[in-house]
């Protein structure tokens, strides 16, 4: 056994989260793509079966009340809340991240007040946020200013209405400084919207602690909600009364079954709701979140423990890549500093698309991002140190043969 394989064994033996892995359906592959689609928690199929057969099949319409369908967006929002450092009553689940970016950004501009007519967006953002920011700017009469995150501070001014930022960059895995950037946006008198897709469930976010205004995120990555599971919207409690949704559907009405022709927004975060929630996906997500509560014997999973393991996994991966991969074949574009690293490692590599295909054939699943990035996501709930060592070894062997 190599020294690194022995080290992996030791690290797995003392890993306090190793017990959580049995709560996921995993076969023999090394799954390093949980930052795109999280693995299936074992409790989900049974719950979905019950929702379909009993709640829908037998209770039918009664389930809107009796099975808690109607209140699912707020209830499940409250389950996500502790994972992103939010007190209850500030998160609603529903729609896609893209739709929530739209709601949050337009609402942010509407909150910002007179004379503020610029939206600042991370120029390196996941494309959907950029597309929606452009449309939101056109609709609200704002100018869009795409800037690199490092330059955001210098761009802020008295015309800034809203700033849309990613907590973790989807391509490089860079973790941006949420507390400092939030404070800078506030100092300029503007409203900040954070996209948490690549951080929620992987590291502490501290929404309440850092005074974040609005935030959105998906649930199919580190929250393991399943393909197309609904996203969420956070609206800080003090701003809820001023949250003027650009999509005021009947589900966010103060009295939805009053069927009134005038719109009157509900109080609280449920102002962020729009239309009928996608119950099947939503309740699959609810079951997936049980993983965080523990297995009935062990205690629940803390986000602090997840972060500690995530950093240990990515550190160990970089060490193994350094040892196994022929010199000069890959270059990490993920920051080395822990304070700047999310839960993934991105390696720039010539022919990355073909390299990733070969890795997948050999049981190591990551993904490829244009133009030349091999992306490996580490979900501490089910990835172990042995997986990490194997992934780097297979990568090294594949590149050596090439
Ligand atoms: C940072 C980021 N924002 C938004 C999205 C898109 O989310 P959705 O497809 O839920 O709209 C993704 C991934 O798909 C993402 O990585
Ligand atoms: N949402 C996705 C999908 O529907 C298909 C394929 C991939 C995705 C993703 O989530 C991509 C992901 N946001 C990324 O960071 O690349």
Automatic annotation (TrEMBL):
Pathway: Cofactor biosynthesis; NAD(+) biosynthesis; quinolinate from L-kynurenine: step 2/3; Amino-acid degradation; L-kynurenine degradation; L-alanine and anthranilate from L-kynurenine: step 1/1. Its cofactor is pyridoxal 5'-phosphate. GO terms for molecular function: kynureninase activity. It holds the Pfam family Aminotran_5. It is an enzyme of class 3 (hydrolase). It comes from the Bacteria. SUPFAM superfamilies: PLP-dependent transferases. Residues 76-291 form the Aminotransferase class V domain. Keywords: Hydrolase, Pyridine nucleotide biosynthesis, Pyridoxal phosphate. The keyword NAD does not apply. InterPro entries: Aminotrans_V_dom, Kynureninase, PyrdxlP-dep_Trfase, PyrdxlP-dep_Trfase_major, PyrdxlP-dep_Trfase_small. The modification N6-(pyridoxal phosphate)lysine is found at residue 221. Its EC number is 3.7.1.3. Pyridoxal 5'-phosphate binds at residues 97-98, 126-129, 195, 198, 220, 250, 276. It catalyses: 3-hydroxy-L-kynurenine + H2O = 3-hydroxyanthranilate + L-alanine + H(+); L-kynurenine + H2O = anthranilate + L-alanine + H(+). HAMAP family: Kynureninase (MF_01970). Homodimer. Belongs to the kynureninase family. Catalyzes the cleavage of L-kynurenine (L-Kyn) and L-3-hydroxykynurenine (L-3OHKyn) into anthranilic acid (AA) and 3-hydroxyanthranilic acid (3-OHAA), respectively. This is Kynureninase. The gene is kynU.
């Amino acid at each position: 056994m190599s020294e690194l394989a022995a080290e992996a064994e030791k690290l797995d033996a003392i890993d306090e989260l190793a017990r959580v892995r049995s709560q996921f359906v995993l076969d023999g592959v090394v799954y390093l793509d949980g930052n795109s689609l999280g693995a299936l928690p074992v409790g989900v199929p049974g719950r979905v079966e019950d929702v379909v057969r009993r709640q829908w099949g037998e209770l039918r319409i009664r389930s809107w009340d009796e099975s808690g369908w109607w209140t699912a967006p707020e209830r499940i929002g409250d389950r996500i809340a502790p994972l992103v450092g939010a007190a209850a009553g500030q998160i609603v689940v529903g729609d896609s991240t893209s739709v929530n970016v739209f709601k949050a950004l337009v609402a942010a501009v509407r909150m910002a007040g007179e004379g503020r007519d610029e939206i600042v967006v991370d120029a390196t953002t996941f494309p959907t946020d950029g597309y929606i920011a452009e449309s939101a700017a056109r609709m609200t009469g704002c100018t869009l200013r795409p800037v690199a995150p490092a330059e955001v501070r210098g761009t802020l001014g008295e015309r800034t209405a809203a700033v849309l930022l990613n907590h973790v960059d989807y391509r490089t895995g860079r973790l941006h400084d949420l507390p400092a950037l939030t404070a800078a946006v506030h100092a300029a008198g503007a409203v900040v919207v954070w996209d948490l897709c690549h951080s929620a469930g992987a590291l502490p976010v501290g929404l309440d602690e850092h005074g974040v205004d609005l935030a959105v995120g998906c649930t199919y990555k580190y929250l393991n909600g399943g393909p197309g599971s609904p996203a969420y919207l956070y609206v800080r409690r003090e701003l809820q009364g001023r949250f003027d949704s650009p999509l005021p559907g009947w589900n966010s009405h103060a009295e939805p079954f009053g069927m009134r022709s005038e719109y009157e927004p509900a109080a609280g975060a449920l102002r962020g709701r729009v239309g009928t929630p996608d119950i099947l996906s939503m309740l699959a997500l609810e079951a997936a979140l049980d993983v965080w509560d523990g297995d009935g014997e062990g205690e629940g999973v803390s986000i602090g423990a997840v972060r500690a393991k995530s950093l240990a996994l990515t550190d160990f991966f970089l060490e193994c890549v350094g040892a196994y991969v022929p010199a000069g074949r890959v270059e990490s574009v993920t920051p080395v500093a822990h304070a700047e690293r999310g839960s993934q490692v991105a390696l720039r590599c010539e022919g990355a698309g073909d390299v990733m295909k070969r890795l997948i054939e050999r049981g190591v699943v990551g993904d490829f991002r244009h133009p030349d990035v091999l992306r490996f996501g580490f979900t501490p709930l089910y990835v172990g140190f042995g997986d990490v060592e194997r992934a780097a070894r297979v990568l090294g062997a594949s590149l050596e043969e090439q």
